[in-house]
Write a structure and sequence with these properties.
Layout lengths: L1 H58 L3 H64 L4 H23 L1 H35 L1 H10 L3 H43 L4 H11 L8 H13 L3 H30 L3 H15 L1 H19 L8 H12 L1
Length: about 375
C-alpha cells in the first residue's frame, strides 16, 4: 500500500514537472519575445529599487523623482556605452577589411608565386607535358583568390543591404525600446505597490512558493555571476602569462580586454584570438600566429573543463549535468537557455530537498555527491 502511494505521488510529481517544463518552453519560445520589453523593464526596476530607496532617504527627495532620474541615468549610460562600443567595433572591422587586399598582394601572392615556380621546375624535370596544365591551374587559382579578396574588400558595400534591412526593422525596435523605457519609469515609481498587488492575487501556499523560488533564483544568479567572475579571472591569468611569454606589447592590458570579452557566450575568447591568429598568419609572422593559436587552444580546453565544474559546484549540480544542461539550453533558447536551464535544474533540486516537490530521494543525491567527491 505504501509502495503504491509512493508510486502515485511520483507519477503526479513527474506529470506536474512535465507540465511545468512544457509551459516554460512555450513561454520562453512564444510569449517571452512579446513580453520581453516589460520583463526587461521589471528587471531594471528591480535592480534600481534599493538605490532609489537609499537616495530618496538620504536626499530627502520624493521617491518618484529619484526613480525617474535614476532610470534616465541608467538608460543614458547603457546607450552611451553601446554607442561607443559600436563605433569602435565598426571602425576596427572596417580597417581590417580594407587591409585584406594589401595583405594579400604583399604576403600571400608572392608565396603562391614562389610555390608554383618551384612546382613548375619540379614537374619540368619529371614530365614537361604537365607544364601547360599547371600554368592554367595556377592562373585559375590566383584569379579565384583575387576575386575572393576583392569580394571581402567590398563587403562594406554589401553592408548597405544589411543597413536597409535594419532600417526596415528599426520602427518596431524603437517601439519596443520606448515601451521598455516607459514601463521602467512606471514600475520603478510604484514597484512596491505592483509587487504587493501581484502577491495579493496568489493564495498562501502559492505565494510562499513564489517567494521561495524568487529568493533562490536571485541568490543563484549572484552565485553564477561570482562563478563567471572566477572563470574570467582564471582566463585573465592564463592570457597574461601566455601573451607575456609570446612577447606581446602591453600583454596585461590586452589580456584584461580579452578576458572581459570572454564573458560573451557566443563570441568569447575566440572572437578576438582567431582573427588575431589569421591576421598574424596573413602578415607573414607564422611563429607568432602559431603561438597565439596554441594559447587559444589551451585556454579553450581549460575553460571547457573548469566551467561546468565551477558553475556546477556553486549551484549544486554535477559537472556532467551542468555541461549537458548548458548545451541543451543554448540549443533550445540561445543565451537565455545557456544560463537559465542550469539554474532551473538547480531550483528543482532545491525544491526537492526542501520537500516542496518529490522527484527523487534526497538521500540519493547525498550518496551521489559523496561518491563524486570520493
Amino acid at each position: 500500500m505504501v509502495s503504491t502511494e509512493k508510486k502515485k505521488k511520483f507519477i503526479i510529481d513527474v506529470t506536474y514537472l512535465a507540465l511545468i517544463l512544457v509551459l516554460g518552453y512555450l513561454l520562453l519560445q512564444y510569449a517571452l519575445p512579446l513580453l520581453l520589453p516589460f520583463v526587461l523593464a521589471f528587471l531594471i526596476a528591480y535592480v534600481l529599487r534599493r538605490p532609489i530607496r537609499f537616495l530618496s532617504r538620504v536626499l530627502h527627495a520624493p521617491k518618484g523623482l529619484v526613480a525617474v532620474l535614476l532610470v534616465v541615468l541608467t538608460y543614458g549610460t547603457i546607450g552611451l556605452l553601446l554607442a561607443l562600443a559600436g563605433i569602435r567595433i565598426t571602425a576596427t572591422i572596417t580597417s581590417v577589411v580594407q587591409q585584406i587586399p594589401s595583405l594579400y598582394s604583399a604576403y600571400i601572392l608572392p608565396e603562391l608565386t614562389d610555390f608554383f615556380a618551384w612546382l613548375e621546375e619540379l614537374l619540368a624535370k619529371l614530365d614537361p607535358s604537365l607544364m601547360s596544365a599547371l600554368q592554367e591551374l595556377q592562373s585559375q587559382l590566383l584569379n579565384m583568390l583575387w576575386q575572393l579578396v576583392s569580394s571581402l574588400s567590398v563587403v562594406l558595400v554589401g553592408g548597405v543591404s544589411i543597413a536597409t534591412s535594419f532600417a526596415t526593422s528599426l520602427p518596431g525596435f524603437l517601439i519596443r525600446l520606448l515601451l521598455m523605457v516607459i514601463s521602467t519609469f512606471f514600475i520603478a515609481v510604484d514597484y512596491q505597490k505592483i509587487v504587493r498587488f501581484c502577491l495579493g492575487c496568489l493564495q498562501g501556499s502559492t505565494r510562499n512558493l513564489v517567494l521561495q523560488v524568487k529568493a533562490y533564483v536571485v541568490g543563484t544568479l549572484f552565485v553564477c555571476i561570482r562563478s563567471y567572475a572566477l572563470i574570467m579571472s582564471i582566463t585573465f591569468v592564463e592570457l597574461s602569462v601566455g601573451l607575456t611569454l609570446i612577447g606581446v606589447n602591453r600583454a596585461i592590458l590586452v589580456a584584461l580586454l580579452i578576458a572581459i570579452f570572454d564573458i560573451l557566450p557566443v563570441l568569447g575568447t575566440g572572437g578576438i584570438m582567431i582573427p588575431w591568429v589569421i591576421l598574424s598568419a596573413l602578415g607573414g609572422d607564422l611563429p607568432h600566429a602559431f603561438a597565439l593559436l596554441v594559447l587559444y587552444v589551451i585556454i579553450t580546453v581549460i575553460r571547457n573543463i573548469i566551467e561546468p565544474r565551477i558553475v556546477g559546484a556553486q549551484i549544486g549540480l554535477h559537472p556532467v549535468l551542468t555541461l549537458m544542461s548548458m548545451f541543451v539550453g543554448n540549443h533550445l533558447f540561445g543565451i537565455v537557455g545557456l544560463f537559465g536551464l542550469p539554474i532551473l535544474l538547480s531550483l528543482l533540486r532545491y525544491l526537492n530537498d526542501n520537500g516542496t516537490i518529490s522527484l527523487f530521494p534526497a538521500s540519493a543525491l547525498g550518496r551521489a555527491d559523496t561518491e563524486t567527491s570520493q
